[in-house]
Amino acid sequence: VVLVEGNECLGGWIRSVRGPGSVIFELGPQGIWPVGSPGSLVSELGHLAAQNRFLYVGGALHALPSGIRGLLCPSPPFSKPLFQAGLRDLTTSRGKDPDETAQSCPARPASEVTRELSIRSCFLSLFQAEQTHSWAECWCQWSLRGGLETLLQALKAHLTSRGVRVLQGQPVCGLSLQAERCWKVSLEDSSLEVDHVISAIPASVLSKLLSAEAVPLAYALSTITAVTVAMVNLQDQEARLPVQGVGHLVPSSEDPVIPEIVYDSPGAVLSQELFQQEAEKGLNEPPSHCLVHLHQNSISQYTLGHWQKLESAIQP
């Protein structure tokens, strides 16, 4: 097994930076959502604040309902108990379409960026639940004390100790299928011949690396677009948030640009100062530290019919 990384650092968009006073700034993904049996165990052992999420509506923070009380009693900004929506969902006929957009699903507010996304490709578990009238939700999110980049360092050490070869700073220049049905991976100053290729680079970039033998796949990949995300990390020594939790969601009706704000710790806030939402941040003074990072074309957009594109691409 050979892991080829075009950058000098592993982990893609994950990057942890140590600021003043041993503060860790996550310039990429902020945390990990646990899934499966191990994820359920982590959720049960996690801090209560890791399970609290809020919604920013009408200039105020509202806790998203959780537990039996949250299902049976109405809580702002919702005017009715959530169990009524569940009953209505049970009496509604199942969706018959092979796919639908996020805008057509009432379970979440759709922004200008997300409203055309495919439910089947982006939220497969949600799509399957809607098809079978089943539903399960877990709000827990966790991170690491030294930053998510420490996970990458541990994974690298684990893989190399088991014989995995890791090449860093080696961008792939081309992919071609050989007569022996193996793949030739062309690098800047060398090449590799492998039986299988698992790619984690953007679809539009991968489409340009494929040879003529993979035209259907290259065409399907070239139609997948991506959006750019700006991350702004702010630190304030004196700020104390009025709530404890992962963060809060911002519906597109409140702000069409900012989807979410994450609370890194009781004394730090991740926000978007560029949009001057002082009411959301709860900050009265300028932040003591600010880091801005632009992730160019970082999130692929799986629009309606995305799964059909991939199925057609892999047909012999």
UniProtKB/TrEMBL annotation:
<dbReference type="GO" id="GO:0004729">
    <property type="term" value="F:oxygen-dependent protoporphyrinogen oxidase activity"/>
</dbReference>
<dbReference type="GO" id="GO:0006783">
    <property type="term" value="P:heme biosynthetic process"/>
</dbReference>
<dbReference type="Pfam" id="PF01593">
    <property type="entry name" value="Amino_oxidase"/>
</dbReference>
<dbReference type="GO" id="GO:0005743">
    <property type="term" value="C:mitochondrial inner membrane"/>
</dbReference>
<keyword id="KW-0285">Flavoprotein</keyword>
<dbReference type="InterPro" id="IPR050464">
    <property type="entry name" value="Zeta_carotene_desat/Oxidored"/>
</dbReference>
<feature type="domain" description="Amine oxidase">
    <location>
        <begin position="1"/>
        <end position="238"/>
    </location>
</feature>
<dbReference type="InterPro" id="IPR036188">
    <property type="entry name" value="FAD/NAD-bd_sf"/>
</dbReference>
<keyword id="KW-0274">FAD</keyword>
<dbReference type="InterPro" id="IPR002937">
    <property type="entry name" value="Amino_oxidase"/>
</dbReference>
<protein>
    <recommendedName>
        <fullName>Amine oxidase domain-containing protein</fullName>
    </recommendedName>
</protein>
